[in-house]
Write a structure and sequence with these properties.
single chain, about 260 residues, four-stranded mixed β-sheet
């Protein structure tokens, strides 16, 4: 499941996916984008994976699109293909996989890299990280669902300003405005990610997947639609082995042993 541009390690029911083009700040070319999609597909179907951590190698999480690819006539796949075959499928996978995905943001997240980070379920960044909607700075518009998630996370006015101005936002600012879950010190970063991933991997994965589905649908559902979906998925959750184990553990005053089904 690993290649030169992306590294994958599975241990303790956690898939650690590392973007690995540090020489170009982990910016995406076609090979890397297609590889990430394939790896996410593998993680979705692998019963040994109960949680996913997405991070970057080196000083950056991801600087977005590799501009050398789009400015080289021999390499340039064109924006239509880049969006429809690279970034849109990545975002769709991040949101549709019924397993928790932690965005472990280890360095600058710019352009599509910032929006891939925001598409993760739980985003943790260390204090030296910055987020940049860099598109307007080179005459482009946000893609990779930036115009979908960002206004829902931080509000319409703030999101539009960041998209237009391309301001650099620190991890601390991002946490305060609700863009990310948590900002931690550089020293605490790896331990925080590890503890969070282990916790998620040992929780009732079935319920976590249903929670993710509910929040996805809440983006467009009416109140009535959302109430109906909550009822439907609550009934589904109540038939799971994890629910039976959780109730039994509560009654027996012991730690539950969830299997994720």
């Amino acid at each position: 499941m690993s290649n030169n541009s992306i590294l994958v390690k599975i241990e303790n029911k956690i898939a650690h996916i590392t973007l690995n083009r540090p020489e170009v700040f982990n910016s995406f070319n076609r090979k890397m984008a297609l590889s990430l999609q394939s790896i996410l597909d593998d993680c979705e179907t692998n019963a040994d994976v109960r949680a996913i951590v997405l991070t970057g190698n080196g000083k950056a999480f991801c600087a977005g699109q590799d501009l050398k690819e789009v400015t080289n006539p021999e390499l340039n796949p064109g924006f239509k293909k880049i969006l429809e075959e690279h970034y849109n499928p990545i975002i769709t996978r991040l949101r549709s996989i019924k397993k928790p995905i932690i965005g472990a943001i280890n360095g600058v997240a710019a352009g599509a890299g910032a929006n891939i980070a925001l598409a993760c379920d739980i985003v943790v960044a260390h204090e030296k990280v910055s987020f940049i909607q860099a598109f307007s700075l080179i005459g482009l518009v946000p893609d990779s669902a930036g115009t979908f998630f960002l206004p829902r996370l931080i509000g319409f006015q703030k999101a539009q300003a960041l998209a237009m101005l391309g301001d650099k936002i620190s991890a601390e600012e991002a946490e305060k405005m609700g863009m990310i879950y948590k900002s931690v010190s550089v020293e605490e970063f790896e331990e925080t990610i590890s503890k969070l991933a282990i916790k998620l991997a040992n929780m009732p994965t079935k319920a976590l997947g249903l929670i993710k589905e509910l929040f996805n649908k809440s983006m467009t559902n009416t109140l009535e639609d959302q109430l109906a979906l909550e009822s439907k998925l609550q009934i589904e959750a109540a038939t799971s082995n994890d629910y039976a184990e959780g109730v039994a553990a509560f009654i027996e005053k012991r730690k539950p042993n969830f299997k994720g089904n």
